[in-house]
Fold this sequence. Notes:
By secondary structure, the protein is α+β, with helices and mostly antiparallel strands. The protein contains 22 helices and 22 strands. The protein folds into four domains: 2-221, 2-Layer Sandwich (Heat Shock Protein 90); 228-367, 2-Layer Sandwich (Ribosomal Protein S5, domain 2); 393-481, 3-Layer(aba) Sandwich (Rossmann fold), CATH 3.40.50.11260; 485-614, Four Helix Bundle (Hemerythrin (Met), subunit A). Strand 10 (254-262) and strand 11 form a beta hairpin. Adenosine-5'-diphosphate is lined by residues 31, 35-36, 38-39, 78, 80-83, 91-92, 124-126, 170. The site of adenosine-5'-diphosphate (ADP) has 16 residues, from helix 2.
Amino acid sequence: MAKHQFQTEVSQLLHLIIHSLYSHKEVAVRELVSNASDALDKLRYLTLTDDKFKQLSFDPRIDVSFDDGDAKTLTVSDTGIGMSEEDLVENLGTIARSGTRLFLSRLSGDERKDSNLIGQFGVGFYSSFMIADTVEVITRKAGEDKAWRWTSDGKGDFEIEPAERDGNGTTVVVHLNDEGKEFADRWRIEELIRKYSNHIAFPIYLRYPSSDKKDVKIDQVNSASALWRRPKAELTDKDYRDFYQTVSHDSGDPLFWIHFRAEGAQEYVTLFYVPKQAPFDLYQADYRPGVKLYIKRVFITDDDKELLPVYLRFVRGIIDAEDLPLNVSREILQQNRNLAAIRTASVKRILAELTSIADSNKALYDEFIEQYNRPLKEGLYSDFANRETLIELVRFKSTAVEGWTSFADYKARLKEGQKVVYYITGDQEATLRESPLLEAYREKGLEVLLMADETDEIVVPSLDKYGDLDLKAINRSGADEALKTDDTKKKEIEIGPLLKAIKEVLGDRVKEVRASSRLSDSPSCIIADEHDPTIQLQQMMKALGRKELPEFKPILEVNPSHEIVRKLQADSTDEALLEDVSHLLFEQALLVEGASLKRPADFVKRLNRVMAKAL
Ligand code: ADP
């Protein structure tokens, strides 16, 4: 007998499951049946594609039984692929994906919050420890003679020893704890299988004692028909929702779904769901793709990131194709033209549905945007073919309205003669709303879109135009044409010598010092030169490890009408004061932008000198 330690993250997960997940107990049954079904899917695929397995007699079935006597057990058995000793150590002792590990390390231990999070994360096999004192797994891998028994009480380690098993497959025996006793019951099990596993494409049999307890009866308890193949008219919303939980392992609801059957030249069925809550690994490189590929109802893969473009990685569901070859490798399949055509059509269909929701159900669309605005923007950057559609789907915050707004809405609100969409980028909506850069635009009644998403810095400049309107960042030079008046132009000339003096003081801290026409209450602001990256973008690149990035100096703009600037202009003979004030004008502009100062101590000293003078 060999003892093994669980990987630390598995122990953490188990701890969480046992201590904070008891409200989701029934998930355990769903996950065990779903694993059995996956194991059958995997073996079926091999019997169709791999010569080694073609001879194997494959009788796919899932058997569920229970003992409601003293033993109190629940058993789920399949005739699927099974596991070798190494598989057991790997699959039931570690968590492979680093994204999942990261997610776990972030869990707070706050029970209610965590159980919601974990509900959408799908804890799989380990969820059986919610209802078990010990779990036993007896398994034999297809094509091998040796069988193994894995046992654990979920408290840090597990044991593996040789065992006996007729035929390949896996039997999981859950020794129920007090919490789980209710599952040793015919009606309870039947209810759960109908709820979560009805559409599993293999027969699920339930064994139970006859009423006189003398015989054992066996009933098939699921319909075993692929839901997505059934006509839409036959399916209720509840059918779709239940099936969503099966495909996604999410205990929540979907926001909406799109069920489509293509007939004619190319036959296939797709059923896509958008989860109400974004998948926990949406922004992790090793995210788990959510779409499963079937060919003629045979499961092919659930780990193909190419089935939909990366930016639609939050979509869950199924593609079931008729005209694809079953017996080619997954790699070759990826280059298949039919599959590419299905992908293209699927993207169009998903985007069309989003467009229709955006037009007809604002509340639902807002809910969608709260979760998925950022991936859509990624699409705007990466999916050139659908750019026209995506540009209408993304949303922004704005100085003109509450809530989300679109480019089209902005266009509808344009002031007469306005030919530019103004926007400002930064890392927080609240900081942007307070930005001095907005002052003059606000006074002139010009709307500015507030772009606080990291991706905006990259995506929006790459668009350049919305229809015939130019897109201009107000935190860059070149967006202030509309604000210039004869008065500001006159002041610009008057203030020329002072600007020169300030530039001399600041030296290479700034690229240039200019008179500003965009400020009213603030004395100064910084902007980026039209084609330079903004301060936020530079910080982002640094955070991403792009340390070799050259430093782009900002432009300092000062407000000729501001009291400080006027007084400085009237009397700039005090050289020490001119120096302090010049630096302070620059440093305060950095601070309001949310940028950090390289030498905060110098800033404080200057501030104190100026205050002392003023008192
Ligand atoms: P998931 O199913 O989401 O990958 P689980 O924690 O449920 O995660 O299971 C981990 C792995 O253990 C599975 O990916 C699979 O390789 C293996 N496994 C679990 N149950 C079975 C089973 N009944 N037959 C064969 N392999 C299984």
